[in-house]
Automatic annotation (TrEMBL):
The keyword DNA-binding applies. This is TetR/AcrR family transcriptional regulator. Residues 28-47 bind DNA. Keywords: DNA-binding, Transcription, Transcription regulation. It comes from Chryseolinea lacunae. InterPro entries: Homeodomain-like_sf, HTH_TetR, Tet_transcr_reg_TetR-rel_C_sf, TetR_C. PROSITE patterns: HTH_TETR_2 (PS50977). Residues 5-65 form the HTH tetR-type domain. The keyword Cell wall biogenesis/degradation does not apply.
Length: 195
């Protein structure tokens, strides 16, 4: 890896938690300099704008979440257990190498829906990718007769995502992690009902 590539990776790694906790609008170039120990010129020598850093930071945070889910799924032998990984990971994300600030999809979606079209596109792509992964798992489970037939895989996948993200949002806003736990119990019940 070249020195420029290492510097760019360093900037992304150090600024990703800042964007995920403070949001795009709440993160200043001074925050980025403080997080990296680099000057504004050094940061902009590697990225054309704060937007470019924010997009790279989102991708970095999303990859961290996907790596956790993939790692946990690799330990599972059934589709049901793979689906339940989402409950375990999002209910206990503080036990995993999850991004500081929580779910980057939720954090970015709530801020960027009307204010930052490129971040909105990234969050949209992340949700669609997650939905497609869930649909694929559900369809695989039906095909292997692990899950019952006549499941609307897309509707179920969207409902799982909505419940997980909604539970996280409610817990964040109220400061009550018990609300997230209650929603995750509902997600688990929904998934177990697919058998």
């Amino acid at each position: 890896m070249s020195k420029a590539a290492r510097t760019k990776a360093f900037i992304i790694e150090k600024t990703a938690p800042v964007f995920n906790t403070k949001g795009y609008a709440g993160t200043s170039i001074n925050d980025l300099s403080e997080a990296t120990g680099l000057t504004k010129g050094s940061i902009y020598g590697n990225f054309t704008s704060k937007d470019d850093v924010a997009l790279a930071a989102f991708d970095y945070n999303l990859q961290k979440v996907q790596n956790v889910v993939k790692s946990e799924m690799s330990k599972c032998t059934t589709v049901l257990d793979q689906l339940l990984v989402y409950v375990n990971v999002y209910d206990n994300f503080e036990k995993f190498p999850f991004p500081l600030g929580g779910c980057p999809i939720l954090n970015t979606s709530t801020e960027a829906d009307d204010t930052h079209p490129e971040l909105r596109k990234r969050a949209n792509a992340a949700i669609l990718s997650w939905k497609n992964a869930l649909v694929g798992l559900i369809e695989k489970g039906v095909k292997m007769k692990e899950l019952r037939a006549q499941i609307d895989a897309e509707q179920t996948a969207v409902a799982i995502i909505a419940l997980i993200e909604g539970g996280i949002m409610i817990a964040k806003v109220t400061g009550k992690s018990s609300f997230r736990k209650a929603v995750m119990q509902s997600v688990e019940k929904m998934i177990r009902g697919l058998v």
